[in-house]
Amino acid sequence: MKKITTLFISSLLSFVAIAQTFPSKPIRIVVPNAAGGAADITAREVGQKMAQSLGGSVVIENKPSAGGVVAGEMVAKAPADGHTLLLVSSGTAVSNALFKSLPFDTSKDFAPVSKLAIFDLVIASSEMVNGQPGKFKTMADVLAYARANPGKLNIGTPQIGSTQNLAAELFKASAGIDAQIVPFNGTPPVINALRGGQVDIMVDIMGPLVAQITSKALHPLATLSEKRSSLFPSLPVLRESGGALAGFNATSWNGFAAPAGTPKDVIAKLNTEIQKALANPEVIKRLEALSLIPQGSTPEALGELLVADTKRWSGVITRAKIEKQ
């Protein structure tokens, strides 16, 4: 018993020592998305402030791949010392539900640190379609058309299995309408199809559409979150349509996770630094300009969110009969 107690105390002191000297080298943040997007900008903005506060440096590594597999595997295999972080997101939960197998176990190979931000998804129509005014000005218009014309409403989204694509499937199921979900290879082709009349409405992340909305090229109909957008406060949320949609809520989010086994004191220190960064006025201004709402969390809350989203999107994938990859 004395030997076990001595080993426990020794391990505890070792963890405390690690936390006190952390970071002892640059912190590497692995982002499973290309540079320049919302995920990348969030990681850079928060990482930069963390580096300033910790007195060290932060390096961003962009490792885009299908399902975030490359980035996830890198971090899962990294030393569990807090110096390597993974940008996790609602896309991580989708991949966990969509892929038959992954080279890591999302629930076991990562230690959640904190949520970083949430961002709105939006349903939009086109102001003009082939030189003529668009026919949908409100969600009531869309729902009335869909119910009067089963199977004729076409909803454009980015790739099959993306959060936007699954949010469209969730909208379709929740509203009880017969509509066609039409996936494209990214946001620009969806916009082109919308303005050309190949699709009637689109579902996408708000951020990339802000310029199109403010220039009156696209007409936003509703956001899919619980609260109205701070950028467009007059824009209703979908749940305001009432009925079966009264409880609707679908938002994207991102956060940081570390390799499983990272000492709790280091996780706590990282969490503290993230909350400080998210409270910085410069970070808030930069993220809100991209329609990102800074929102930290406890490690436990992020873990619960990841589990809940995996379960929810798994259900959507099953109902929509999307083939697992």
List keywords for this structure.
alpha/beta; 2 domains; single chain; D-Maltodextrin-Binding Protein, domain 2; 13 strands; globular; five-stranded mixed sheet; 325 residues
Textual characterization of the structure:
- With 325 residues, the chain is of the alpha/beta class.
- Strand 6 (128-129) and strand 7 form a beta hairpin.
- It has a six-stranded mixed beta sheet with strand order 2-1-3-12-4-13, sandwiched between helices.
- Helix 1 packs parallel to helix 9 (264-278) and helix 4 (90-98) crosses helix 11 (299-319).
- It is 42% helix and 21% strand.
- It folds into two domains: 2-19 and 26-118 and 251-319, D-Maltodextrin-Binding Protein, domain 2 (3-Layer(aba) Sandwich); 121-245, Periplasmic binding protein-like II (D-Maltodextrin-Binding Protein, domain 2, 3-Layer(aba) Sandwich), CATH 3.40.190.
- The chain is built from eleven helices and 13 strands.
- The protein starts with a helix and ends in a 6-residue tail after the last helix.
- It is globular, with a radius of gyration of 21 Å.
- The longest helix has 21 residues, at 299-319.
